[in-house]
Amino acid sequence: MAIKRRLKADSSFSMASMSDIVFLLLIFFLVTSTLINPNALNLLLPKSTNQVSAKRHVSVGIKHLAPDKYEYSVDKRAVPFSNVEPLLRQKLMDAEDPTVTVYADMSVPIEELVKVMNIAKRNSYKSILATSPE
Known about the structure:
The chain has 134 residues and is of the alpha/beta class. Helix content is 32%, strand content 26%. A hairpin with a 2-residue loop joins strand 2 (56-66) and strand 3 (69-74).
């Protein structure tokens, strides 16, 4: 008695489902890649909604007067840049948590801000960049 198999294994492969998966992955990566970095250099600073209050702080102001000319003030008193660090040391020498708040014009280059923040770092002061509320 000869038993015959009626079902034969089909050796063909359908690529329809594979192309659907590739298409869905393509759409997914296109959508997520546009969300990662929407506006890399669209900067409108300084504005912030966060407000930080420190216990005792000294304010340092930087105003842009002319090209390569800036006016520095410590607690609303105009001083040359060479006197900023000694004044900060004098005002914050006995403070428990000394903090320097930097108020700068939007037109002041970052280099000038970094100069004041480096003074704060050298003397182990916290530094806060003051911003206008949104």
